[in-house]
Specification:
- The protein has 136 residues and is mostly helical.
- The N terminus is likely disordered.
- The protein is built from seven helices and two strands, in the order H-H-H-H-H-E-E-H-H.
Length: 136
């Protein structure tokens, strides 16, 4: 595994954040903010802008840079960890995983079934919350 590097600069040559372009596309507008951040990090990994062992900015740095709540950034990092794209070390931060780790972290049928059940539960809760309460 590559030696761990310091935080990468997240600015492009034009001085804009690297996430600006992916987050402003028509497709990403349909995604919730944590998914936009997940897709932006995955795109940087695919383009070779992030390498195995590279340290991601801290949760608070990412939140500030993108105008997101820290909970939203934490959810994005949790998603990236579940996909095997990054790993976290307590007190040290989050780092890009090696390709071998990423491939081995492909979701299983059980993982997908569990996620589907959780999503169904969330949808039901949202639907119930939007229903008008009966008058008593």
């Amino acid at each position: 595994m590559a030696a761990m590097s310091t935080c990468l600069p997240w600015l492009s040559m034009a001085g804009r954040r690297m996430y600006d372009a992916p987050m402003s596309s028509d497709r990403s507008r349909q995604q919730v903010p944590y998914q936009q951040l997940v897709q932006a990090v995955l795109a940087q990994i695919r383009r070779g802008e992030l390498h195995p062992g590279d340290k991601l900015p801290s949760t608070s740095q990412l939140a500030t840079e993108h105008g997101l709540a820290t909970g939203t950034v934490q959810r994005a990092l949790a998603e990236l960890r579940s996909r095997g794209a990054v790993y976290s070390q307590a007190g040290r931060g989050s780092f890009v995983s090696s390709p071998e780790t990423q491939a081995s972290a492909a979701p299983t049928v059980e993982d997908l079934a569990r996620e589907l059940a959780e999503l169904r539960e969330r949808v039901e809760e949202l639907e119930q919350a939007q229903r008008p309460s009966p008058s008593t």
